[in-house]
Amino acid sequence: MIGAAAGWPLDDRGAAYGDGLFETILVRDGRPRLWDEHLARLARGCHVLGIPMPAEHELAAPLAEAGEGLAVLKLTLTRGSGGRGYRPPADPAPRLRWQLSPFAPQESRWEEGVRIRHCRLRLGIQPLLAGLKHLNRLENVLARAEWSDDAIAEGLLCDSEGRLVEATAMNLFWQRDGQLETPRLARCGVAGTLREALMERLAIAEVDVGPEALLAAEAVWVANSVQGAWPVVRLDAADGQPVGRWSLGPAHRDFQAEAHRLLGYPPPAST
């Protein structure tokens, strides 16, 4: 279901320019997971873009429509209409839309692990927008269009200077020499809410490295606040040739278990 008057006016700045933000939230039995982290990221985005932050009760209103079981709530906030061309209005009237959809996680990917690949596309560097979940996601769309094989679960993205950043819709983590690591997101990329919560609970180092770092890793994961954590068992180059393989072990399951506790998912089966 779509709330707050379905559809967008043609002059909405979010539709025209990507001038807005969105959050995708896992809801379990009417209760949002990582709600505080989602609100904090949305507030950061509103501050950077200069869009008034809606009141929490406005953002939480769609939860009244959620029933039992799992659902995903997508909140989309734009600057609204107005302004002239790229020049934003001096006094914006933000527009909030929401969509609530039933959801079922892909449990086989939790248990069996996933195959991922490197993408050819490189992310542009823009520190002002780094970490935000803004509406201009054309880079991710083009990266995801690079493959159609359903056996490949995700694609890894580097920035224009060759540093690892993220996957197309998930954050990236690995363990190297016993240390958990994740790419630093000071130049580009989306700082996921599950990533934020995990970094508060686990000793995860933020690093600036190229993709070669993964070849020295004992374990690799991709994760987000909806799907949970998928252990990686195979990594392919952009041409489809395998460049890394991992067997599932206790390290994979320990990290997964922490991620799944935060989302209310069951712990993974031991390996």
TrEMBL record:
The keyword Kinase does not apply. Signal peptide: none annotated. It comes from Halomonas mongoliensis. Belongs to the class-IV pyridoxal-phosphate-dependent aminotransferase family. Homodimer. Pathway: Cofactor biosynthesis; tetrahydrofolate biosynthesis; 4-aminobenzoate from chorismate: step 2/2. One of its GO terms (molecular function) is 4-amino-4-deoxychorismate lyase activity. Its cofactor is pyridoxal 5'-phosphate. NCBIfam families: pabC_Proteo (TIGR03461). It comes from the Bacteria. It catalyses: 4-amino-4-deoxychorismate = 4-aminobenzoate + pyruvate + H(+). This is Aminodeoxychorismate lyase.
